């Protein structure tokens, strides 16, 4: 067995797993009645748009092409440099280092190809749509494609660096600043620079990142971190699916690089008073603040209802607001019970008045905060009605 | 001596179809260290789960005679979102330990188990041994009347093992009852007052080391030899 065979075997396994995840959610009835009609509708609208009519055409007339910046920005945040490493490799394959090198090199090439595919897809789908509002030549669009692809690969190589280092607030802020500077610089460059210069910058980004990534591929110093990232990539789709379900939960991938929490460092308390009630509250709020999955769950629910409230007529806004308050409370209750159900609290008295007081307080505080956000969205949306 | 725990397990298991444990009766008295011994899969952990009320399918009666208890699980269990110190703070708050007393006890235990330098870090990033030490510290922190301990020695370094054993002895002196399930028979032999031996889900031998030696006919022999003879008979 060589690295190439191993890479293709793992790639096949990866897609097989993702297919199984999708298959678990989309059975033939869902595919027949929801997914296929939705795809047909989108294709129909796209053809209409190409012919200068239809809903999307009207919308694109209003929105023009500036939204493309946001889409490009979002794409830049996706992806990672894959390795297809597994935990067991350190036992079985690390003795045959050449196989691992080869595997990682193929995985690197695969990551570049996937990134390239994203940009090509965006360009082939989007460029015809905006051609009526933006006049762009073939050379200009190719240069833009080249630049965005190069920049994206550069970001991925930075991410490859980041997973090797422990998380800290300063690194986090630094990362955001670097991205913000590159985004702003890119916007200026795209608007002001000649196309051949743009292409040159893109190629330079690409070359720089490829050399860096190849060096990293030849090293084993971040083996554990790479395995962790690989697990996260594999479980990303499954995690997204599970997020829709309140009952099911994904096993968390343990991040061994993480040392100290970002908020309330050095075990600082939220509540100064130490009572049984504040003990439970402290636990719940710290879990909510530090567990990305719960925070994301609440954020997604809020976003979905906010969008619904914005686009609905007034009578539906009221109903959506009421439904949100009910669903939000239900989910907060589920999360609280799940947190307190952990084996670490075996022996704690969960029938006491303090426990029930803490439960009520925690749920109320977050419930009111989230409901206030949704209410604010409803109030703001009234201004646009 | 007063019984802190009286467990009468008629049956316990994970589904109603498959019983892992049948007819096990055990008790732990004040100031007594009791060892629960058995081969892999004999039903020791199931017995502990039944005692803690965590068994899916349980028939019987568990009497905690008004005593507080702490549990040290075989596999460390903690909140991934809390630091080591926050875990200890949580446990002590729930047990109503005053802040000054908590800080003193926690600091002393952290130093005993050499975890002082990582007290503000997340245990999820610790090694297995360090996570196991967190389990020991959280149990000792609240000074309960009774300890339920499942395989405590796995992953512990020799220094920590020695300190843990010393602390168990001290807690026994204080009057705490301890039920400890372990495979490390040479250590168990030195520190346990009595033993319960489980095989294939049933209690087959119990008593002090002397009683067990007498019952197996291996006078003066080690607990390991007695256990081997009791389980394997005269087979090599």
TrEMBL record, chain B:
Source taxon at top rank: Bacteria
Domain ABC transporter, first and last residues per copy: 4-225
Keyword vocabulary terms for this entry: ATP-binding, Nucleotide-binding, Transport
SMART domains the record matches: AAA
One Gene Ontology term of the molecular function aspect: ATP binding
InterPro entries, alphabetized: AAA+_ATPase, ABC_transporter-like_ATP-bd, ABC_transporter-like_CS, ABC_Transporter_VariousFunc, P-loop_NTPase
Protein name stated in the entry: ABC transporter domain-containing protein
């Amino acid at each position: 067995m060589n690295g190439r065979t191993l890479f293709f075997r793992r790639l096949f396994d990866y897609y097989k797993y993702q297919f199984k995840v999708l298959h678990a959610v989309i059975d033939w009835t869902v595919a027949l009645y929801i997914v296929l009609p939705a795809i047909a509708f989108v294709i129909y609208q796209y053809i209409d748009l190409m012919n200068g009519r239809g809903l999307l055409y009207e919308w694109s007339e209003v929105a023009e092409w500036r939204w493309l910046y946001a889409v490009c920005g979002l794409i830049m945040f996706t992806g990672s440099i894959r390795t297809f490493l597994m935990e067991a490799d350190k036992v079985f394959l690390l003795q045959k280092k050449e196989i691992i090198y080869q595997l990682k090199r193929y995985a690197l090439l695969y990551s570049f190809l996937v990134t390239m595919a994203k940009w090509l897809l965006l360009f082939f789908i989007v460029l015809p749509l905006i051609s009526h509002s933006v006049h762009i030549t073939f050379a200009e669009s190719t240069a833009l494609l080249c630049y965005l692809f190069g920049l994206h690969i550069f970001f991925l190589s930075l991410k490859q660096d980041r997973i090797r280092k422990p998380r800290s607030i300063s690194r986090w802020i630094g990362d955001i600043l670097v991205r913000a500077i590159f985004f702003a610089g890119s916007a200026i460059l795209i608007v002001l620079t000649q196309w051949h210069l743009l292409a040159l910058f893109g190629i330079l980004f690409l070359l720089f990142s490829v050399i860096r990534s190849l060096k990293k591929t030849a090293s084993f110093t971040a083996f554990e971190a790479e395995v962790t990232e690989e697990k996260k990539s594999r479980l990303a789709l499954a995690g997204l699916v599970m997020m829709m379900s309140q009952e099911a939960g994904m096993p968390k991938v343990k991040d061994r690089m993480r040392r100290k929490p970002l908020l309330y460092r050095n075990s600082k308390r939220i509540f100064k008073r130490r009572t049984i009630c504040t003990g439970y509250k402290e636990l719940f709020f710290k879990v909510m603040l530090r567990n990305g999955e719960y925070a994301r769950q609440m954020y997604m629910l809020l976003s979905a209802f906010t969008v619904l409230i914005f686009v609905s007529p007034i009578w539906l806004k009221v109903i959506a607001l009421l439904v949100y308050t009910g669903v939000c409370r239900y989910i907060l209750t589920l999360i609280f019970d799940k947190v307190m159900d952990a084996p670490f609290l075996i022996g704690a008295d969960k029938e006491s008045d303090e426990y029930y007081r803490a439960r009520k307080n925690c749920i109320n505080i977050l419930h009111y905060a989230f409901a206030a956000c949704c209410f604010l969205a409803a109030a703001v949306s009234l201004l646009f009605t | 001596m007063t019984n802190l725990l009286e467990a009468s397990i008629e049956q316990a298991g994970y589904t109603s179809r498959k019983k892992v444990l049948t007819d096990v009766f055990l008790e732990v008295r004040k100031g007594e260290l009791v060892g629960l011994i058995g081969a892999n899969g004999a039903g020791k952990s199931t017995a502990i789960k039944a005692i803690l009320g965590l068994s899916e399918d349980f028939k019987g009666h568990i009497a905690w005679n008004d005593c507080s208890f702490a549990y040290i699980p075989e596999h460390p269990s903690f909140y991934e979102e809390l630091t080591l110190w926050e875990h200890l703070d949580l446990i002590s708050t729930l047990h109503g330990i005053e802040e000054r007393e908590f800080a003193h006890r926690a600091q002393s235990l952290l130093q005993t188990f050499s975890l002082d330098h990582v007290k503000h870090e997340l245990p999820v990033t610790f090694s297995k041994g360090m996570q196991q030490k967190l389990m020991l510290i959280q149990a000792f922190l609240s000074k309960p009347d009774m300890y339920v301990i499942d395989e405590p020695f796995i992953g512990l370094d020799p220094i920590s093992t020695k300190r843990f054993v010393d602390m168990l002895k001290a807690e026994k002196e204080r009057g705490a009852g301890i039920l400890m399930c372990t495979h490390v028979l040479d250590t168990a032999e030195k520190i346990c007052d009595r033993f319960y031996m489980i095989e294939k889900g049933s209690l087959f031998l119990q008593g002090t080391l002397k009683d067990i030696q007498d019952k197996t006919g291996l006078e003066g022999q080690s607990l390991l030899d007695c256990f081997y003879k009791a389980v394997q008979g005269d087979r090599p």
